[in-house]
Design brief:
Blueprint (H helix, E strand, L loop, with lengths): L2 H18 L11 H24 L24 H17 L2 H5 L1 H24 L1 H9 L5
Helix pairs in contact: 1-3, 1-5, 2-3, 5-6
């Protein structure tokens, strides 16, 4: 499943579960932190996409990659767009005080790690060889 579908689907399922079985997550005074996380997620996403565009490589993971991006957020994470999606889900959970939205990360993160990122890493290694292996050794997968 593609990440731009997986994360919103998980948020939606969490929201529906919350309607059926309401579970609070944070005190009201902490909820504004969710908005900060949402802002951080959007900023990280925009910066990450900007680096892809500067390198002339497509953002959708199903299109062929033309360059190994190591600048901007990619200096700290091999998958900053996926970190942004994860922050977005956490931000919504905190801002809306919906524990089920946060709980839906439990199935999402293994699917991302095994079903999406591992496949992309095999592709990148085949495409860029030693250059990618060196990058993978020096930059964490998530954070």
């Amino acid at each position: 499943m593609r990440p731009p579908i997986l994360y919103p689907l998980a948020i939606l399922i969490g929201y529906v579960l919350q309607l059926l079985w309401p579970v609070g997550l944070v005190p009201r005074s902490v909820q504004p932190l969710g908005a900060v996380l949402l802002f951080a997620a959007v900023a990280l996403f925009v910066l990450s996409v900007r680096e892809f565009r500067r390198a002339g490589t497509p953002v959708p993971s199903h299109n062929p990659v033309v360059a190994l991006v190591r600048s901007g957020p990619y200096r700290f994470s091999r998958n900053p767009i996926y970190v942004a999606f994860t922050l977005l889900q956490i931000g919504f959970a905190v801002w809306l005080d919906k524990a089920w939205i946060l709980a839906m990360l439990v199935p999402v993160l293994p699917v991302m790690s095994v079903g999406v990122i591992a496949r992309e890493e095999r592709y990148m290694e085949a495409r860029f060889g030693d250059e990618y292996r060196s990058y993978a050794r020096s930059v964490r997968r998530w954070l």
